[in-house]
Every structure is written in C-alpha cells, then in structure tokens.
Design a protein that fits this description.
Number of strands: 9
Number of domains: 4
Distance between the termini: 82 Å
Helix content: 40-55%
Order of helices and strands: HHHHHHHEEHEHHEEEHHEEEHH
Number of helices: 14
Strand order of the largest sheet: 6-5-4-9-8-7
Shape: elongated
CATH architecture of the largest domain: 2-Layer Sandwich
Length: about 300
C-alpha cells in the first residue's frame, strides 16, 4: 500500500486511488511524529492530487521533510528496518559481494550477512525489480533495509572510492545548538528563538533578528535539534505536558534558561542567557545619585511603616 507513495505503473485511475490512500497514511505517520503539521499535510495532499506527484517526493524535494524522516515512517509502516549507515559497521566482505557499478545504479549497499541472507540497504525498496536485480547480482537471497540516498552514496564512496558523478552536496545548513548559543553570547543578545518556518533568531535590544547563514527551520530538523539536548525523562515530560522549563549550559561560556513547547504540531524553544557578571551602575545607564535618592525614599518608607 505504501508503494503508491513512491510511484507505480498502475492505470491512471487505480494509481490515483492507491497513491492517495498510501500518501494519507504516510502523512498521518509524519503528523503523529510531529514532523508535519495537519494543515501542511492537507495542502500537500491537494497538491499531489493536482499534479500527480507523490507526497513523499513533494515533501523531500521541497525540503519540507528530510528523506530520513520519510523513510523512518515508511519503515515502521511496512515493518522493514531503517538502517542509519552513519551509525552501523559495514562488513567489507558483505559489501564486496555487490559490484560497484550495480550498487551505484541501484543506490544500494550491502552491510552484513544474517541468517543466510545478505542485508542490503536501499533508498527505494519499491523501485521496479530492485530485489530481483540484487539477488541476481549476488546470486543469493537478499533482505532489504531502508536508508537515505545521501548516506548510501557516502558509504559507496568509502567502499569503492569517490567518483565525480557520485558526489552529493547536501543543500542548506542544519544548525548546531552550541553554535547558536555562542552567537547569542558573542553578539550580546538576550534570547535565542527557535520555531518552525523561520530561521533561528536572536533578540538584540528588544528586536528579533535572524542569525545569518541559516534557512527556515522545518519541523523535523527542529525536533532533532531540540530533542538532541534533552534527556529521556525531559522528552517524556515534554510530550506529556507539551511544555518544559529547564536550564542548559554552554561549557566555558555561560548558562541559559530554556523553555521548550509545542505549537501548531511543531516543537519550538526559547533560550534566555543568564548573566554571569554584575554590571556597574554606569554600564546599566543609572546615575549614582538616582540610586541614592531611591534608597532614601525606601528607608523613609520603612521608618514610617515601623512607626505605624
């Protein structure tokens, strides 16, 4: 049923029905995972119906959801393992069983042998005859796993050597929380604001300004960024109450008060810098005599209150 989300060769009428049903189920998984808002899903389903382009392609090619997140959702639906190639060990003997040219043409990389079968990570398990082509090439049974195209191509470059045609350049720049908080300190900002649909922003002299070099944040990448600094207990509390307060240290630089929240099916956060130095009256712009006058008024008020 998920096959329609990645394309098939059915008749136009049957294809439209299958794509719509599969795409909605895929979209619901993304909404449930807070990777896509409900309104955005409905808009993309309408675009799919109007253009005939599958939801998965609309989301990934438009940089609305990362390929990794779509594949994780698909993997959970079809009960096929998602394999992060940047985190697993690739057995060289397994990798050598598939010819480099075939591996690149199918965007596939063998990672290990298990239970008499070769486990091969592919980007699109529903591509026409992908399993049969792999089994013919290795002359044996194949178990498919899911992985991103970029990770598969990086793995193939490491195994077989980089070739110019296989180079992949990731578009955009994904933020790192340490860099963002360091920017807050370096530019004497008071807050860092993270929200879907806008670049990371800082508040300087009461005004929000985007941090240069970053694109609008997608719900999926924002979730990874924020969840990456939370403990398992904090994540559970956030998902239960939809809000979380705490503190976050930037080693050697300072500390921040942290407020994480859910807004319109997306996670967001505000980090406020905690001052580490007590500024002088001059730095605060307060004339010393003004403070003396205020102190005198306070003392007189206290004396009056005691007399009463």
């Amino acid at each position: 049923m998920v096959q329609g989300a990645f394309g098939c060769s059915r008749s136009p009428c049957e294809k439209e029905k299958r794509v719509s049903g599969a795409s909605r189920k895929l979209g619901e998984l993304l909404v449930d995972g807070r990777l896509l808002s409900r309104d955005a899903l409905e808009a993309f389903l309408e675009e799919e119906e109007a253009t005939g382009r599958p939801l998965a392609k609309l989301l990934v090619e438009g940089n609305h959801v990362r390929e990794e997140d779509v594949l994780r959702a698909v993997a959970s639906r079809v009960r096929m393992p998602y394999i992060d190639l940047d985190e697993v060990f690739i057995d060289p003997r397994a990798a050598e069983r598939l010819d480099a040219s075939i591996a690149r043409s199918l965007v596939a990389v063998p990672v290990k042998e298990a239970d008499g079968s070769l486990v091969v990570v592919v980007a699109d398990p529903f591509a026409e005859n992908v399993r049969s082509q792999l089994e013919e090439a290795i002359e044996g049974p194949v178990t498919l796993g899911l992985g991103t195209r970029s990770a598969i191509r990086r793995a193939l470059d490491l195994i077989h050597g980089r070739i110019e045609a296989a180079d992949v350049v990731d578009s955009g720049r994904e933020p790192v929380i340490g860099e963002l908080l360091a920017y807050v300190i370096d530019h004497e900002a008071s807050d860092l604001h993270l929200a879907a649909g806008v670049p990371p922003q800082v508040r300087i002299n009461g005004r929000l300004r985007p941090i240069p070099g970053y694109e609008e944040q997608r719900p999926a990448s924002l979730r990874r960024l924020i969840y990456g600094i939370l403990t398992e207990r904090q994540r559970g509390r956030l998902e239960e109450t939809l809000e979380l307060d705490g503190s976050y240290p930037l080693p050697g630089r300072g500390r921040f008060r942290m407020n994480v929240f859910f807004q319109r099916d997306s996670v967001g956060a505000v980090f406020r810098a905690i001052p580490t130095e007590i500024k002088s009256l001059e730095e605060l712009g307060i004339p010393p005599h003004t403070l003396l006058i205020q102190a005198s008024h306070i003392m007189k008020s206290l004396a009056t209150a005691r007399a009463i």
